[in-house]
Automatic annotation (TrEMBL):
Record keywords: DNA-binding, Phosphoprotein, Transcription, Transcription regulation
Family annotation (Gene3D superfamilies): 3.40.50.2300
Positions of post-translational 4-aspartylphosphate modification: D59
SUPFAM superfamilies: C-terminal effector domain of the bipartite response regulators, CheY-like
Pfam family, one: Response_reg
Domain HTH luxR-type: 154-219
GO biological process assignments: phosphorelay signal transduction system; regulation of DNA-templated transcription
Source taxon at top rank: Bacteria
Alphabetized PANTHER family for the sequence: NITRATE_NITRITE RESPONSE REGULATOR PROTEIN NARP, TWO-COMPONENT RESPONSE REGULATOR
UniProt-listed InterPro entries: CheY-like_superfamily, NreC/VraR/RcsB-like_REC, Sig_transdc_resp-reg_C-effctor, Sig_transdc_resp-reg_receiver, Tscrpt_reg_LuxR_C, WalR-like
Taxonomy of the source species: Bacteria, Pseudomonadati, Bacteroidota, Flavobacteriia, Flavobacteriales
Protein name: DNA-binding response regulator
Length: 221
């Protein structure tokens, strides 16, 4: 039986204490190995000129070269790691911006310690990862009134939906096309269609029109 291949991680943040904290959390994980760290964006880019990792945990606000510019630079390169953004800010516009330019995950710094392992393992497979606080912000950004989406008239069905299904249901209610939903949530058209079919089954409606009506009746739009 071959040796288990570890997920190789580089950590970039302008605070040594945060880097040390993440290293301490990851040290207990047999599947993960920290192979490097950087205190600013310039060091990140220089390190990757001669080294590589599977995942880069990247702070947005760093001296010399910030996280946005690092993402933009990686987008030009053929070889680049899967990137998890760390940020003290949880503005939905920032989340969407960094995902558009190549990030695979987004963690609010306040919950990084709890969810960093899950985030690294998820993005290492090429999948997206959002911390729960970020998911809540994204979902509420698609609601016209920003109300809590977990308590609606037909709550029995609604409570059984995943966060992603809730996002898609709201967009369907706002008459977004499959392609527009795909672009907005950074997922494939096929994934949107799969979620749509699951929603129809879970909410016991006949088609996408039924989903839109459900969203309207339950004041999701």
């Amino acid at each position: 039986m071959g040796k288990l291949k570890k997920i190789r991680v580089h950590i970039a943040d302008d605070h040594n204490v945060l880097i040390d904290g993440i290293k301490a959390v990851l040290k207990t994980e047999s599947e993960i190995e920290v192979v490097g760290s950087s205190l600013n964006g310039e060091e990140v880019l220089e390190w990757y000129n001669t080294n590589s990792s599977d995942v880069l945990v990247l702070d947005i606000n760093m001296p010399k070269v910030d996280g946005i510019k690092v993402l933009q630079e990686f987008k030009k390169r053929d070889s680049r790691p899967h990137i998890v953004i760390l940020s003290s800010y949880d503005d939905v516009k920032l989340v969407k911006e960094v995902m558009k330019i190549g990030a695979k995950g987004f963690l609010a710094k306040k919950c990084a310690g709890e969810q960093i392992v899950e985030a690294i393992k998820t993005v290492s497979k090429g999948e997206q990862y959002f911390s729960k606080s970020i998911q809540d912000i994204i979902v509420s950004s698609f609601s016209s009134d920003g109300k809590d989406l977990s308590n609606h008239q037909d709550g029995t069905f609604f409570s059984s939906l995943t966060d992603r299904e809730k996002e898609i249901l709201i967009l369907i209610g706002q008459e977004y096309s499959t392609r527009e939903i795909s672009d907005s949530l950074f997922i494939s058209v096929n994934t949107v269609e799969t979620h749509r079919k699951n929603l129809i089954k879970k909410l016991k409606v006949k088609n996408a029109v039924g989903l839109a009506v459900y969203a309207y009746k339950n004041k999701l739009i």
